[in-house]
Amino acid sequence: CAFCQVDKGQAPAPLDTGEAERVAEAVASLQLSYVVLTAVARDDLADHGAGLFTAAMAAIRRRSPGVGIEVLTPDFWGGHRDEGEGLAAQRQRLAAVLTAAPACFNHNLETVERLQGEVRRGATYRRSLGLLAAARNLAPTIPTKSGLMLGLGESRQEVLQTLRDLRSVDCQRLTLGQYLRPSLAHIPVARYWTPAEFEDLGAAARELGFAQVRSGPLVRSSYHAADGIGDS
Description:
Blueprint: H1 19-29, E1 34-38, H2 50-63, E2 68-72, H3 83-99, E3 104-106, H4 116-119, H5 125-138, E4 144-150, H6 156-168, E5 173-178, H7 195-208, E6 212-215
Parallel strand pairs: 1-2, 2-3, 3-4, 4-5, 5-6
Helix pairs in contact: 1-2, 2-3, 3-5, 6-7
C-alpha cells in the first residue's frame, strides 16, 4: 500500500508457528484487559493468515481468559481470478476468524472510493465493504468496525458518502484520523484536516447511527478500542 511502511515481501518467510504464544505472553506480561490483533496480508498462505488470528486468540485466552480481543484483518482475498471462487474462499477464511468469537471485527477501508486504487494497491472498496457485510451476516452479535485516514485528497462529501456506505452494511464502529506520511517514498499528505473538522465529521457519523465514533487528528484503528465494549 502507498501509505504503509511495512515492506512488501516478494518471498515471505515461512509462518512463525511460535508467534501466537509470544503474543499471548506479551498480553499477559503487560496485564492487558483488551488487545487489538492485526497482521500483514499473507496471500502466500492457503488460509491467508486466518489460522494465525485464531491461534493467537486461543493462546491469549489460555493465559489470560478475561482479555477482550479485537481483530483487524486484511481482506483475505489474494489474487483469485474467478470472482465466485474468491468470494467463497474469502468467506471461509472470515468464518474461521469469527468462529473464534473476537470482541470486535475490524477491517479498514482506509480511504474514499475514488482514491482506493492509488492508496490501497491490490485491495478494492467494494470487496472490503463486502467483507464487513459478510461479517455481520455470519456473526451478527460481533460488532464490526472500520477506519479512514484523512488528508489523502478526499472531499468532505466523499467522506460522508463513505460513512453512508459503511452504515449500509451495518458497520457499527468508526475511526477517523489524519494520514501522516511515513517517508518521502510514500504518498504525500494532500491536506491537514483541522480538529474542528474532525469533530464535525464525528458528529455526522453519530447522526448516521454509528454506535462508537473516534474522530481526531491522532486517532488510529486501536484508539480507545476497549471503550465501546458492549456496543453493537
